[in-house]
Amino acid sequence: MEKIKDLVKAALEAQKMAYVPYSGFKVGAALLTKDGQVYTGCNVESASYTPTICAERTAIVKAVSEGVHEFEAIAVVGDSEWTFPCGVCRQMLREFGKEMTIYVVKSEDEYKEFNLKDLLPHSFGPEDLIMDGEKA
Ligand code: THU
User: Fold this and answer.
1) Which helix (H) or strand (E) element contains residue 53?
2) Which CATH superfamily is domain 2-135 in?
3) 25 lines ligand 1 (CB under 6 A)
């Protein structure tokens, strides 16, 4: 599908922007919204280490800060042969829905497709919280 090819290319482009003076490990992500927009992200590291943000969460934060909460898919590429989203990023993706396609990208023509449900089974999410006596 052309839409997916473009998403993969956007992740590869975003990877070039990675700010990684400590790990040297570049990651790029491209998040496809339900209405067809794409938000990209790269990992951004910090000299004090813990503030480091992953590429996936950079993309999520960019989208959410512009009022977009509905996502269809994310493409992720890193410096290992197949870089999967870390646990923290899987949880953050799950915040916005259980159903999302995750493309783990090796190159423009090589990528694998997964579902968030399979990468984060039995997940905890907003629906599990009781707020004001009612489920969120
Ligand atoms: N990293 C990501 O950007 N996404 C992931 O899902 C895995 C890890 C980044 C964080 C850090 O900058 C570098 O990769 C090494 O862990």
Assistant:
1) none
2) Cytidine Deaminase, domain 2 (3.40.140.10)
3) yes
